[in-house]
Amino acid sequence: MKNYWDKAITFEExxxxxxxxxxxxxSEHDLEYKPYYELGIQRMDRTLKxxxxxxxxxxxxxxxxxxxxxxxxxxxxxxxxxxxVPALVKFFEGHNEVKIFLRDSDxxxxxxxxxxxxxxxxxxxILDQDFNVKNSWGxxxxxxxxxxxxxxxxxxxxxxxxxxxxxxxxxxxxRGKDSIQEILELL
Length: 187
Known about the structure:
By secondary structure, the protein is an alpha+beta fold. The protein is built from 10 helices and 4 strands. It comes from Chryseobacterium gilvum.
């Protein structure tokens, strides 16, 4: 895990890469995902501006005496990631170091943390001080997962567009609070 940590980037670098891929696409993938990068950047900016740290959650973090690190596997074009990653970075700021590993740069890390056989992101890896995996979380909080199950169970009754809308409304109102709580419980 230390090798992955060493290759990971800061949140500021993550944002810069997203802006660069949006403004100066260098691959077919960048061009195809341009609208998703744009939306992801808007969502991350909104979360950073509007998120308020829950003091009870901050106290809970302090009471855990967790001295490890948080490694997040992500990509800025991902809707779940754009809602979760900035909230986690802001929450752990000043307490635990957080770095981001770009999933598509090296699939060997995400292959170890698949969700039901998929490379779904974001994936949060909780590391102890010696870079041992303590736990992992992701790609979305329970409420988001429940919406996904509802959509997959009956897409005619709960169409994809409605699922995406409901998920984004939830994310914009929740501002990472549920994700943070679920991760706190894993520390």
